Amino acid sequence: MTLARRSLLATALSAPFIDRAAAQSPQGGGHAHHGDMFHSLRSPGGVPLPPQTAQQWVTESPAPAGPPGRWEARAALPLPRSEMAWGVALKGRIHIIGGYGEQRVDRNYHHAYDPARDAWVELAVLPRGANHVGVVADEGRGVIYALGGFVEQNRTPHSDCFVWDAAADRWQTIAPLPRLRGAGAAVMLDGMVHHIGGAGDGADRASVAWHEIYDPAADRWTVARPLPAGRDHTGTVTFGGLIHVIGGRFNDFGHNTALHHVYDKATDRWSLRAPLPTARSGQGAGVVGDRIYIMGGEGGTPGGPSGPPTGNVFGQMESYSPATDTWLHHAPMPTPRHGLGAAAVDGRIYVAGGGPIVGGGVQSAVHEVFIPA
Fold first, then answer.
1. Strands ordered across the beta sheet of 88-90
2. DSSP letter at 10?
3. Fold of 10-371
4. Whole-angstrom Cα distance, residue 147 to residue 175?
5. Which residue in 250, 219, 223, 221 sits closest to 234, CA to CA?
6. Strand partners, 121
7. Taking the model in full, what pTM does it have?
């Protein structure tokens, strides 16, 4: 796979920020003006785009070429963030919840983006700050569910679950996860919340295959057929009454997979589909029209006592047709990232925040939108 150098859009670097109100961030921390696009996890203040991106960013896809589409810059996140794991769309706005930011990994931020105004607002913060929180929106009920997450850096999960009411801008506690974990994927199917995969507790932080279903009416969890292969940091969506779990990792991003499994509720069975062309984890996912789009992610060597993490940050935009069980590639992300917040609204996919280098050492406020051809 060819390494490709990509540069930030100049317009992204000058995108406006909104001010943050200290009263809405009970976990504390400074609230200096954030006029920069990148922050380090280890020390306060802005940092330049790390030089590792010249070697780490990869944008070439092995999939056949499709209509390229285009990317455009949008208003930057109010502050650099990463490891939210996912974004959700509700009532025409994109919501980004939790994650790393301002030198902590257990943030409770809740920002929402209005495409019509090209502006962000701050909303009621998550009751328990965490990273890699499973989030899913229920358009019919006008709510967002936040499930589990890690309270340390990509480890030490909790089981707390909450629901946010858009009309009241208020969170409430709901039944906890039967088994605590973070980095699990959450989707809605026929009024039920499906929470799939993730990573459990313990020193080895092993990926799990768990599949649990939450009934909002009964405030109760039940167990369904697990994934055929446990993994976390997947790209997961619903399409045509089926759940697609795409890519992800086995335990760490040194063991990424291209597996693509589909769950049929009617039979309580999983089956295989065409694999993701670029194996990755920490990617975004969204549905536009008759296609499922996967963008971003990372892979490589996690590092440890012998050195920092190394590898690639992916900028590929690849899409899947459920009708033909085939993949195509499109215009790559101008700013490759992982651990980002991505969601589709009105036929466009908005991709905000994320890490521009492998690992969680740098957060970004970059926000770009993909407009399919």
1. 88-90, 93-97, 110-114, 119-122
2. H
3. Neuraminidase (2.120.10)
4. 10
5. 250
6. 112
7. 0.91
